[in-house]
Amino acid sequence: MTIIITAFERSPDGGKGLARDTRVRWALEEVGQPYEVRPVSFREKKEPAHLALHPFGLIPTYEEGDLALFETGSIVFHIAERHAGLLPGDANARARAITWMFAALNTVEPPILELSIAKILESDKSWSQERLPLVEDRVRNRLGQLSVRLGKADWLDGAFSAGDLMMVSVLLRTRPSGILNEFPNLAAYVARGEARPAYKRAFDAQLAQNTGKALTG
Asked: In whole angstroms, what is the distance from residue 83 CA to residue 178 CA?
């Protein structure tokens, strides 16, 4: 069965790898599964056909035969469960990797998204300049805690896993603010994720879609 994912026809980030479909592409590349991409415009994602796949009208979605999924955490977890390469074989290590997936999405990402909203959507508010440092400090607090836990290790819990894939994807969103560079071990951790061949293939595919340049082997 062909795997089909949806992605923005033209991503708001212009192909910098921050759109959430990149996480799904990366997971599929890590486990060696071919997939097709169905581009969706901002207009189309509000139409009934897309809402039938994603009730909130967001990107991405995942289809495989009769199965349709939404939410990147759920999609990446499904890929990791179904195909070898993203979850350890040991039951306890597997549970820890899944825990890190949840931590990335539920604990680390929310303040990072809040910072993006503060900078992009709230910058014209009279209270913006007073609030921004508070939001930045919340991001620093989370990254500081994560930095301590990672220490000098290459990955969060032994070998690279879906937990690292999700965490690196989340941390990439801090790079424009410069906060990531305040934590050298996290910056190096993200760079290791970006250096993985599977990530490079996913990034290149998303960039090619946004620039209209076909990939060549």
From this structure: 35
What is the pLDDT at residue 27? 98
161 and 186 housed in the same domain: yes
Cβ-in-10-Å burial (0-12, 13-18, 19+) of 162 comes to buried
Q: Can you point out the beta strands (E) in 1-114?
A: 3-8, 35-40, 61-64, 67-70
Which CATH number fits the domain that encloses residue 163?
Answer: 1.20.1050.10
Per DSSP, 131 falls in state: H
Least confident of 13-22, 24-33, 134-143, 191-200: 13-22
Report the pLDDT value the prediction gives residue 217, as an integer from 0 to 100: 35
Locate 108 and state its tokens. Answer: 């680390």
| Cα distance between residue 199 and residue 27, in whole Å | 8
Provide the residue range defining the domain that includes 47. Answer: 3-85+198-211
Buried b (16+ CB within 10 A) or exposed e, 2-15: ebebbbbbebeeeb
* Residue 71 structure tokens: 């939410």
Assess whether 36 and 109 both reside in one domain.
no
Question: How many domains, in total, are found in the chain?
Answer: 2
**216 lies in some domain:** no
